[in-house]
């Protein structure tokens, strides 16, 4: 095209120069040459738009579609006939790039799905591990508490056994003293029996005296009733006398009040005397039973003396057994302390496991968020 343009331009100018002697013809040739040049330039501009600008616009639209992730319905532009080899090479390169990018995004999407599924499974597993670890920590803490309590109990048992051994020796001495006291109590019971019999006789006399006091109180109550009746009659007579008998009426009221108080006091004393008589009878019954119990107690004291001798033998045997138990309890306490230390170490390990599971859960959650973002990114380029 450029060669034809130069040839026509050269011919036109040459003819114009040759025909300078003919002004009209020279102008026509000059005009034809300029017109031909303009026509050729227009044709060349049209061909330039068809061969270069249009393919470049299509390539630009294709590249913009790739940049925006619009893969769906995106077609690679074809190179028009007559376009340069560079545009065709550029078009083919863009096609290969689009194909490679699509394949890469498909792989990224598949990997994102796989990573998301793995992250969800890891998150669920980490949560279960954390739950199991926390449950295990609670169980270990419970066992540790029970172990500490058992250790304290074993130590307390050992101390109590040692104290029991000492008490056993004291009991042996006490049993020996008890035997002597039983013998002394036998003599004391005989004396108590005589004293109780004397007290019973005294109570019998007290009962008789109480009956006499009751008879006297009955007489006093009768007198008080009669006095009350006389005071009532005097009050009636004073009321009949009017103002002159008013002072006498006051005295009659006071006498009647004293008679009432005397009657009430007499009844209270009578109740007390009755209670004393009842208590005396009960005391007599109790004392009679007491005498019987004392006699029975004397027999039991004799049996107690024999039982104390047997107790002395049993206490001696018990002392040896308590010593053995104290030794075993001490060994158990030491073993329990070792177990307690091991449980504390296990507790620390379980706590570390809980912290690790928590960190794993957080990491899985972060991985899940990253995988979700990657899936969204890959899905955006497949729309």
Q: Return the string of H and E elements.
A: HHHH
Global morphology: elongated
Which CATH architecture of the largest domain?
A: Orthogonal Bundle
Q: Kindly, what is the distance between the CA atoms of the first and last residues, rounded to a whole number of angstroms?
A: 45 Å
Q: What is the overall number of helices? A: 4
Computed CA radius of gyration, to the nearest angstrom: 66 Å
Taking pLDDT < 50 over at least 5 consecutive residues as the criterion, the unreliable ranges are none
CATH topology of the largest domain: Helix Hairpins
Strand content: under 5%
Q: How helical, in percent, are the residues?
A: over 70%
The first-level CATH class of the largest domain is given as Mainly Alpha
Largest sheet, in brief, is: none
Structural class: mainly alpha
Number of domains: 2
The overall pLDDT, averaged over residues, is 68
Record field, number of beta strands: 0
């Amino acid at each position: 095209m450029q060669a034809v343009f130069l040839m026509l331009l050269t011919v036109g100018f040459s003819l114009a120069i040759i025909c300078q002697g003919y002004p009209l013809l020279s102008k026509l040739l000059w005009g034809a040459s300029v017109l031909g040049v303009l026509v050729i330039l227009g044709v060349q501009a049209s061909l330039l738009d068809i061969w270069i600008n249009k393919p470049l616009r299509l390539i630009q639209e294709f590249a913009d579609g790739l940049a925006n992730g619009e893969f769906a319905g995106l077609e690679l532009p074809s190179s028009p006939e007559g376009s340069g080899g560079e545009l065709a090479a550029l078009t083919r390169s863009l096609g290969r790039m689009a194909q490679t990018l699509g394949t890469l995004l498909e792989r990224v999407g598949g990997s994102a799905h796989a990573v998301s599924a793995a992250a969800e499974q890891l998150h669920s597993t980490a949560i279960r591990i954390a739950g199991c670890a926390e449950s295990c920590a609670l169980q270990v803490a419970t066992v540790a508490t029970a172990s500490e309590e058992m250790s304290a109990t074993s130590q307390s048992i050992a101390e109590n056994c040692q104290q029991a051994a000492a008490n056993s020796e004291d009991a042996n001495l006490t049993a020996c003293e008890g035997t002597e006291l039983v013998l002394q109590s036998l003599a004391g019971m005989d004396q108590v029996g005589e004293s109780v019999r004397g007290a019973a006789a005294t109570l019998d006399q007290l009962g008789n005296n109480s009956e006499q006091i009751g008879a006297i109180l009955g007489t006093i109550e009768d007198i008080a009733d009669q006095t009350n009746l006389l005071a009532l009659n005097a009050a009636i007579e004073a009321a009949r006398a009017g103002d002159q008998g008013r002072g006498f009426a006051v005295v009659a009221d006071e006498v009647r009040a004293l008679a009432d108080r005397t009657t009430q006091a007499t009844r209270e004393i009578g109740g007390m005397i009755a209670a004393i008589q009842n208590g005396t009878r009960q005391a007599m019954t109790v004392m009679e039973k007491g005498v019987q119990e004392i006699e029975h107690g004397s027999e039991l004291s004799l049996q107690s003396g024999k039982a104390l001798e047997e107790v002395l033998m049993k206490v001696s045997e018990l002392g040896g057994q308590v010593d053995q138990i104290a030794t075993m309890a001490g060994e158990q306490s030491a073993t329990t302390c070792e177990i307690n230390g091991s449980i504390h170490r296990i507790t620390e390990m379980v706590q570390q496991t809980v912290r690790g599971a928590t960190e794993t859960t957080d990491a899985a959650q972060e991985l899940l968020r990253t995988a979700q973002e990657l899936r969204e990114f890959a899905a955006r380029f497949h729309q």
